[in-house]
Specification:
The chain is an alpha/beta fold. Helix content is about 45%, strand content about 15%.
Length: about 500
């Protein structure tokens, strides 16, 4: 009778197959949880403990529609006006009209050459669609025209028009502010806004709204640059990125682009959220954004942030929430998993207490209470990895490796009273993008992406501070063109609200 015998090579192959089976079973369990399980990261404990359709038409390189012929004029090309009525703005006849009269000063109504009074000969009337909460109306600006006496060599005089963000635009700043907020705060795509206006008898095509949005966003760029400068002067910043789809006209489909967000300020809820649109996720993007920054950076474990940390350019505080998430996903050693999740929970409990204290008390709590917990976890993870009894391709090994790679940086937040143990501020800042892209679907082009980043920056910063973004944008758009370039910081949301 023969005895079953297994060779060493067969045993090795069986071991490898078992490892693969375990790994695949972990993947199936993880995917099942993602599809059918709860998405909350809360855990049950028995302890009683105290992130565009920006269908922007391309501004450059846009092919002409068949009906848009070019008329050649010496020196330049002039595009004929579209006569098919597609982009014509139609307003209801019964829309209320509010007149604003702009007149010359009394001293300006006298001819400086002859001393005679100017003669009123007519009016200059400008009509714009305006908005106030709950209603639309026509804002009619009337400027009286005056002719100089016959003996004078001058021409006709009128009072100057007030500053406008977009020249020769039929939309008032109040209407533009309403559109921008509804799109970038309420996530209404422009085709829906066009339909909403049409129900009130105001016919404005989506293409026209797109052009206004892009022009308004790019015109507000000076404020965006000033806010970016102030964020990068903060001692602590928080960074995250999220994918968005961008139209790829050459292929007739979309491709993946990215929107970065940098949150800055000392407060527990920093005031400014600066968005930055990029066409890809290459490291060079964030390295360029943060090239002059030398403070404390909070983020997830993205390689570019680690590069900055290795260069000693920044103090890097990796996010403990991401570490916790890795151990929530794994299903390897259940007792060790529960133990390390409990330790991380202790850290966040202590953080909640410390943020209710003074900065000095916060540092003391971190050094005396939290650092020993972190040291205990570091020792336990090193011991677990040294034992070598973990499948190399498993969620458990991945979680331990993730923790181990961050050991040099895990305690960085404990040395700065304004640093945080998590990157939740930035993750909350990318949430409007995640909500918006389900509605506007994709960004039209790079100009549209840049305009979206600028408007998102102003609107979401207003929301974070508690400022009404519609009121803010309307006021700032009327003033920014004539405001002193050296005092642009006065128009940023937190400074603007002080003046109000």
């Amino acid at each position: 009778m023969k005895t079953a015998h297994t060779s060493s090579s067969e045993q090795s192959e069986i071991t490898i197959l078992h490892s693969q089976i375990n790994y695949l079973q972990e993947q199936v369990r993880w995917l099942t949880r993602q599809l059918f399980g709860q998405k909350s990261e809360k855990t049950i404990s028995n302890l009683n403990e105290a992130q565009l359709e920006l269908e922007f038409p391309p501004l450059e390189g846009k092919p002409l529609a068949p009906e848009e012929e070019e008329e050649k004029v010496p020196g330049y090309k002039r595009k004929k006006t579209n006569r098919n009525g597609k982009d014509r703005i139609t307003l209801p006849l019964d829309l209320p009209v509010e007149r604003q009269i702009l007149d010359l000063l009394e001293c300006e109504k006298i001819c400086p050459e002859t001393g005679l009074l100017l003669v009123k000969i007519g009016e200059e009337v400008s009509r714009k669609l305006a908005y106030r909460p709950g209603s639309y109306f026509i804002k009619e600006t009337v400027r009286f025209k005056y002719a100089l006496p016959a003996a004078s060599l001058g021409g006709i005089r009128t009072a100057p028009l007030p500053d406008s963000l977009l020249t020769r635009c039929q939309a008032d700043e109040s209407f533009l502010a309403d559109i921008l907020v509804k799109k970038f705060a309420d996530h209404l795509p422009l085709y829906r806004l066009s339909e909403i206006l049409a129900r009130q008898g105001i016919l404005i095509s989506r293409q026209t709204l797109c052009q206004w949005v892009v022009r308004a966003g790019l015109a507000l760029k000076p404020l965006y640059l000033e806010m970016t400068k102030q964020v990068l002067q903060s001692e602590n910043i928080f960074a995250d990125e999220t994918p968005v789809q961008m139209l790829d006209p050459g292929k007739g489909k979309t491709r993946q682009a990215y929107m970065w967000v940098i949150v800055g300020g000392k407060e527990s809820n920093p005031p400014y959220r600066v968005y930055n649109f990029r066409t890809n996720r290459q490291h060079v993007n964030i390295l360029e954004i943060l090239k002059d920054y030398h403070g404390t950076l909070h983020s997830d474990k993205y390689g570019a942030y680690e590069t900055l940390a290795n260069r000693k350019q920044i103090k890097w505080c990796p996010c403990w929430v991401h570490i916790r998430r890795k151990f929530l996903e794994e299903s390897g050693d259940p007792e060790f998993r529960k133990w390390i999740l409990r330790k991380i929970r202790y850290i966040f409990m202590l953080e909640k207490v410390s943020w209710a204290r003074s900065p000095e008390e916060r540092l003391r709590i971190r050094q005396e209470k939290e650092v020993p917990i972190i040291d205990e976890m570091i020792a336990a993870v090193k011991t677990k990895l040294a034992q070598g009894k973990i499948l190399p391709k498993s969620k458990f090994r991945e979680a331990l490796g993730y923790f181990f790679s961050l050991i040099p940086y895990l305690k960085n937040y404990t040395t700065d009273s304004w640093a945080r143990a998590d990157n939740n501020v930035a993750e909350r800042a990318v949430r409007p993008i995640a909500l918006g892209r389900k509605n506007w679907m994709f960004i039209g082009n790079e100009n549209g992406g840049e305009a979206a980043a600028i408007i998102l920056t102003l609107v979401q910063s207003c929301r974070a501070i508690g400022v009404n973004p519609t009121e803010y944008l309307e006021d700032v758009m009327r003033r920014v063109m004539s405001h002193c370039s050296q005092k642009l910081h006065e128009l940023l949301p937190n400074e603007w609200i002080k003046q109000r």
